[in-house]
Design goal:
- Chain A: Keywords: Membrane, Transmembrane, Transmembrane helix.
- Chain A: This is Stage V sporulation protein AC.
- Chain A: InterPro entries: Spore_V_AC, SpoVA.
- The complex is a heterodimer of chains A (159) and B (154).
- Chain A has 9 helices and no strands.
- With 159 residues, chain A is an all-alpha fold.
- Chain A folds into 2 domains: 87 residues, no CATH class; 25 residues, no CATH class.
- In chain A, helix 3 packs across helix 4, helix 4 crosses helix 7 and helix 7 packs antiparallel against helix 8.
- Chain A starts with a helix and ends with a helix.
- By secondary structure, chain B is of the alpha+beta class.
- Chain B has a domain of 103 residues: GMP Synthetase, Chain A, domain 3.
- Helix content of chain B is 53%, strand content 14%.
- Chain B has 6 helices and 3 strands; from the N terminus they run αααββαβαα.
- A 3-stranded mixed beta sheet of chain B has the order 1-2-3, sandwiched between helices.
- In chain B, helix 5 runs antiparallel to helix 6.
- The chains are: A mainly alpha (159), B alpha+beta (154).
- At the A-B interface, helix 3 and helix 5 of A face helix 1 and helix 5 of B.
Chain lengths: 159, 154
């Protein structure tokens, strides 16, 4: 579709596009993937340590230890975001810092910090879930769809 | 590529973890030592031979790396640890083993768990039984607590 659009452009614009394509810096995809893998993996590794800690020293089973682990990770992200470490990490980690639950925490907390000057209700209250809102909406929606499919399959499909 | 000290440190740290994690530990594999210690008979407590029998029959499965089991008069709790790569089929295995144990001990209430927490709790309980520091009521109470833990859902 993009190619069709390009053909309709005037020749000057096409020449400019060609020049831009040549000069444009290529995205280091492999490096980005590597960094995302390493950083994301490290965050999950820390999460696993926290989970093991909860299983060993608190009355949580493997089933239930996930909740306090998530809460702890989000709390740690809150501190890291507040002190400005998390955005520095995000600069080179990319998706590695955005995909785990810490990325969700960061999206909520950074928005809250950013809009603090506009007041606690109109500023923080309305803007806090600006970035994280879609995650919640589509997370709940897709969970509903999956649950619906599972219910249909197990109840009427005899699986 | 200009990397800050923080980035260099992080990269090194992550690579070290990945290398350490991906390396297969041959010594661990070849030893294949099962984490099982049979319970000794204590006259003041319930006879633990059903638990020992359950351990013996579950020992046959190569997926299992450790078994802990404790029983009262009509109840038994078994916790197993399975090989890391076999965890993908954990639910399937657990169901099969649970069925097998129920078949082997008809009339008993058998609970089989693959949960790490249950395993740790049973390990502590086994130690207490071997040291003979428990009464029958205390054992029943502890078992009730462990069963309640294993039933907990998020």
């Amino acid at each position: 579709m993009a190619d069709e659009k390009k053909k309709k452009l005037p020749p000057k614009a096409q020449a400019y596009q060609a020049l831009q394509d040549k000069k444009e810096e290529k995205r280091p995809i492999v490096k980005n993937c590597m960094m995302a893998f390493l950083v994301g993996g490290t965050i999950c590794f820390i999460g696993q340590i926290i989970m093991t800690f909860y299983i060993h020293f608190f009355p949580f089973t493997e089933q239930t230890a996930g909740n306090p682990t998530t809460a702890t990770l989000i709390f740690l992200t809150m501190l890291a975001t507040g002190f400005g470490y998390y955005d520095r990490l995000g600069q080179f980690a990319g998706a590695g810092s955005a995909v785990p639950v810490t990325g969700f925490g960061n999206a909520v907390i950074s928005a809250a910090i950013e809009h603090r000057t506009e007041g606690y209700i109109i500023g923080v209250g309305t803007n806090m879930f600006k970035v994280a809102g879609p995650v919640i909406v589509y997370g709940v929606f897709s969970a509903f769809i999956v649950a619906l499919i599972k219910t249909i399959l197990t109840q009427w499909g005899g699986m | 590529m200009n990397m800050t000290f923080f980035q260099k440190f992080f990269l090194f740290f992550s690579l070290a973890i990945v290398c350490a994690g991906c390396g297969t530990d041959e010594t661990m594999e070849s030893q294949s030592s099962l984490d099982i210690n049979p319970l000794s008979a204590k006259p003041s407590l319930f006879d633990q031979s059903p638990s020992n029998m359950a351990k013996e029959s579950l020992m046959e499965y190569e997926e299992i790396t450790g078994i802990k089991a404790v029983n009262s008069d009509k109840e038994m709790i078994i916790a197993v640890q399975i090989k890391h790569m076999k965890r993908f089929f954990m639910a399937k295995h657990r169901k099969a083993w649970q069925k097998e144990m129920e078949k082997q001990f008809p009339g008993w209430k058998v609970e089989l768990s693959t949960d790490r927490k249950i395993y740790l709790e049973l390990d502590k309980l086994e130690e207490k039984i071997n040291k003979d520091t428990l009464s029958k009521d205390e054992l029943k109470k502890e078992m009730k607590h462990i069963i309640k833990l294993s039933k907990e859902q998020t």
